Amino acid sequence: MPFPATRMRRLRRSAPLRALVRETSVSAADLILPLFVTHGSDRREPIATLPGVARLSIENAVAEAAEAAALGIPAVMLFGIPAGKDAEGSGAWDDEGVVQLAIRAIKERSPELLVIPDLCLCEYTSHGHCGVLSGDTVDNDATLPLLARTAVSHARAGADLIAPSDMMDGRVGAIRAALDEEGFADLPILAYSAKFASVFYGPFREAADSTPATGDRRGYQMDPANGEEALREVLLDVEEGADLVMVKPALPYLDIVRRVKDATRMPVVAYNVGGEYAMVKAAAAAGALDERATVLEVLTSIRRAGADAVITYHAKDAARWLSERN
Predict the structure, then answer these.
(1) N or C: which end of the chain has fewer CB within 10 A?
(2) pTM > 0.70: yes or no
(3) Is 316 a catalytic residue?
(4) Domains of the chain, with CATH numbers?
């Protein structure tokens, strides 16, 4: 038989040819940098399980955010470590809380940068769960007004998006109603819509001091085996008023990212979480992988799956590498 006329290798012969036909791109503009903000002054506390990441006092978070903006990263996501905790997580809606103060300070220094505070009670509750407890169970409906109250506090502080991550049923609708009532009808909601009960959150929980004191979060976060349920969760959030939707984690759930994008045609965000980051760092430190090449391949895979934006602890390094490559 004659050799086929089509030779797929023709367009792989050189770097310019490969670039010409490349289907998926990654740029700094696709990335969101997470920041952990804590009380005090001039604090930078390294997080052992997240090499290169630290808990930052507000002035250091402001500097880190400004550096991200200078690298072309359009947004930061804030996680607060409060000075104190209680059963309800009341620090979450404190207008003078660490996240609210950080939002104001970052927006003053870098007004063009999008500031997205994570909206959850887990960092603020003494028991570490994402809502108030009734006995040993998280009370879904009793938690909703507290989340709505926190959303309004974030909005007053100057947040650019509201990002509920708690996985309570009905929370997007409750938050939308509260924001609209308080005059924030134009403020978008980025919903953690398909958030799985994942072992990959381990480093984050150390960083945010949010490990549950008893039990786990499988009663409200999703079973990793369920794809159809993930779509139902996402579509319910869309129906309640979500403007963007998120899949978390990213790498073990790229199939969900693709399905969510196809089902909604909405902006989809994927969270490249702490465990994914830590694995790359550990492999690179052991000499098993090239860190730069691995990170850029990981981010490309997440974008290829359908994510419009990626939350990642690699953001600053990736932005530098992408600038060098271009």
Answers:
(1) N
(2) yes
(3) no
(4) 24-325 (3.20.20.70)
